[in-house]
Amino acid sequence: MTFLRSHLGSAVLEAVLLILCVILAITAPRFSTTENLLNVLRNVSMQGLIALGMTMVIISGEIDLSVGSAVAFAGCLMAFLTGWMTGLEVGLPTGLAVPLAGGVVIVVGFLLGGFSGFMRTRYQVPTFITTLALMTGLSGAAELITDGFPLTPFPDWYSFIGGGYLVGIPFPALIFLLAFGVFHVVMNHTTFGRSVYAIGGNAEAARLSGIEVKKVKVLVLGTTGALAALSGVMVSSEIMSGTATTARGWELDIIAAVIIGGTSLMGGVGRIWGTMIGVIFLGVIINGMTLLNISEYWQHVVRGVLILAAVLLNRLQQKA
Amino acid sequence: MPRSSLETVSLCKDYPGTRALDNVSIRFDGGQVHALVGKNGAGKSTLVKIFAGAISPTSGSILINGASATFSSPRDALRQGIVAVYQELSLVPELTVAENILLGRMPHRSGPWTFAIDWDQAYATAEAVLSRLGVDLEVRKKACTLGVAQQQFVEIARAMSYDPAVLMLDEPTSALSYRETEHLFEIIRTLASRGVVLLYITHRLQEIYKIADTVSVLRDGTLAGSVTKEDASPENLAEMMFGEAVKRTRSAGAPPAREPLLTIEHLSREPAFRDVTFTLHRGEVLGIAGLLGSGRTELLRSIFGADPPQEGYLTLGGRRIYPESPAMMKSLGVVLTPEKRKEEGLVQILSTRENICLASLRRVARGRFTTRARERVWAGPLMRTVGLVTPEIEAPVSSLSGGNQQKVVVSKWVGTEPRVILMDEPTRGIDVQAKRQMFEIIWALSNRGISSLVVSSELEELLEVCHRILIMKKGRIALEVLPSETSLERLFGLCLQ
């Protein structure tokens, strides 16, 4: 254990992931094919995108439970707006309607997240409460928009956003990797990112040093809302419809990935890189178990064990 | 640099139920070091926080260099060069030393990378500030890996990096060694010679004589006086801090028969206190005096088992025990009324009745069940014991005054039939009449053979209520005095020495 600690330092999770991949490569021959690995990357990218924002939210000492419902809501709103704009009354061409609708959906997502931040900073309503309310509210709103049935107004080329490939890589995965790069730089090398750490670590010290705590919190939650909306658009493209029942329970999967990646729910501690590893870790586990024909029920159990083990590992490392 | 000045005119700050600052008009000139002294809760920290823009005054105005100024946030105050180093450490543990020093002002790169932080320059700037202070620290280290003294210097470095016109230091030396303190004083003198306004809050008398040019005393939110160092004799300061109305109405009377009840033997809990030994007798009221940070509160919490000691043990009624947990000490008849009455002593949303019954539910209940009627019967006599008169014992305890809340805490514990009550600042934030009643309660308990160990910053109250007083300094019991043979001035001087 001491050997591990001195030579791996904080890279224990990376090492475990590597070992897991080696084991899967041996036991499940299809695992290490390029096709399968790209598939894993595509599968994790839509949740992973939100996990990047969630990492910021949790580091700043807040939480967002509404992201799953926000994905469903964004997809349904996207479908509704596209249908409306291309319909007889407005009559826009799809090439114009889809980008327009996408823009509106992402702005709405930002505003919804920003609303949680506003409630938190203006009225001291915990984000746990506001986002819990949004979680139910947005789920209901999605059903209201679609009237309970999937909306399918999209043109054929729309499937590219969620299912297409660019230079051989799934398009959502490219977006995810790009976003990862941006968030990595923002959190480590910009004043805004460092303020997020400062606020989560000691909010009063940050305030007394002239950091605009309220503004930063609203922006962090707003950004995560926008990411959830973007993810919702990609999901609607993948399934080519606005469906109110998609992305159920995503919020917990996403929070799990962030925590496995070493971010502390107490705020102030966490890394975007860690979240990347956490997201891939979960994706690989699910993929591997599917390839090995292990029941889906076991996948849930394993995920539960993983969350506890990762946090325990973190605590033990901190003590050492 | 031109000389600055900082002035207040009839400054007031109200909190619900109390007035923290009452009509304070004072002027601090640049080029001098101004000591600000007063008891805990006298309003020093409130004044500093108002200057720093952390809280806004209820009324009154602030003048900087003669011109009226208002700050709506710490950012505003910092822009005008007003910087504070607070008593409680305010670093972000997970950030580096450099980031903490430049918190909220990290330098950016130039050219197309202007959004990105310029780490090289940040480290260089932080290193420059630290070396100007003569402090050798690795600026890439995380703040949480530093010792307390090092953290204190990081805070001072942060303040210095603003190039302040007004610098306020709230007990900056509490974590520093002698050499480090000397070093800080040099820095302070250099700043003063450049015309900076320096406000220095301290409890240590020697420091006042060493560093200050003027001394201003706050008492209960008002300015009790402002004198030059030459006029600031210990007697003079004591009178300003505690007031002339220090007239004993009644002393605790003769100590009861010296029958040892609780002996504290070589108790240690680093770094708060070490090797503490003393004896509390049956029915005795024993006071512990000492400055903030002398380890008083920590000692009480250890005896109660809330933070068990690392070394040492207790002897209670001839039995040797180790205070493991509050539950254990409660069952042995040792209870604590905490300093933070509102947070630790009471459940604010529960009623007076429920709070009184909380500590003795087993006694109140028949079997495992309790009823409102049984609890009322239980609470009634206890309330009479402490003279608690409240029209509605079913209303939330938060609706009671501070004095009545304290009585609820005491009656809650009296219900458990304790042998020893540990009281931490029992008169904090309660009015004069309630204080008097508190003394009566302590004496009444004493007459019933219940001993009290009283920690208080109110020296005149200790002199009045106690049979004996121990003086605690830097985690040790320094000496013992008898109230009948000690004046307030002498006790004050003993605490400061």
Which features would summarize this protein structure in a list?
heterodimer; A: 320 residues; mainly alpha; ABC transporter involved in vitamin B12 uptake, BtuC; 14 helices; 75% helix; disordered N terminus; B: 497 residues; alpha/beta; Rossmann fold; 6-stranded mixed β-sheet; 18 helices; 34% helix; globular
Task: Give the second-level CATH assignment, the architecture of chain A.
Answer: Orthogonal Bundle
Q: What's the average pLDDT of chain B?
A: 85
- Helix segment count of chain A? 14
> Sheet with the most strands of chain A?
2 strands, antiparallel
Element-level helix/strand string of chain A: HHHHHHHEEHHHHHHH
At CATH level 3, the topology of the largest domain in chain B is: Rossmann fold
User: What is the level 1 CATH name of chain A?
Assistant: Mainly Alpha
Can you give the helix content of chain A as a percent range? over 70%
| Spatial shape of chain B | globular
CATH architecture of the largest domain in chain B: 3-Layer(aba) Sandwich
The overall average pLDDT of chain A, rounded, is 91
Weakly predicted, low-confidence segments of chain B: none
Briefly note the structural class of the backbone of chain B: alpha/beta
Question: Beta fraction of the residues of chain B?
Answer: 15-25%
Across the major sheet of chain A, the strand order is 1-2
Distance between the termini of chain A: 11 Å
Report, as a whole number of angstroms, the end-to-end distance of chain B: 37 Å
Oligomer: heterodimer
- Total strands of chain B: 20
Largest interface: A-B, 21 and 25 residues
Provide an overview of this structure.
The complex is a heterodimer of chains A (320) and B (497). Chain A is mainly alpha-helical. Chain A is built from 14 helices and 2 strands. Chain A has helices at residues 2-8, 12-27, 34-59, 67-86, 94-123, 127-146, 159-163, 171-189, 191-201, 203-208, 213-238, 250-260, 272-291, 296-319, and strands spanning 165-166, 169-170. Chain A starts with a helix and ends with a helix. Chain B has 3 domains: 5-242, 3-Layer(aba) Sandwich (Rossmann fold); 245-333 and 418-497, 3-Layer(aba) Sandwich (Rossmann fold), CATH 3.40.50.300; 348-416, no CATH class. Chain B is built from 18 helices and 20 strands. Chain B has helices spanning 44-51, 74-79, 97-101, 119-133, 148-160, 178-193, 205-211, 234-242, 296-303, 326-331, 341-345, 352-358, 361-364, 372-385, 402-414, 432-447, 459-465, 488-496; strands at residues 5-15, 18-29, 33-37, 59-64, 67-69, 82-85, 166-170, 197-201, 214-219, 222-228, 260-269, 273-281, 285-289, 311-316, 319-321, 334-337, 420-424, 451-455, 468-473, 476-481. Chain B is globular. Chain B is α/β, with parallel strands linked by helices. In chain B, helix 4 packs across helix 5 and helix 8 (234-242) packs across helix 18. At the A-B interface, helix 9 and helix 10 of A face helix 2 of B.
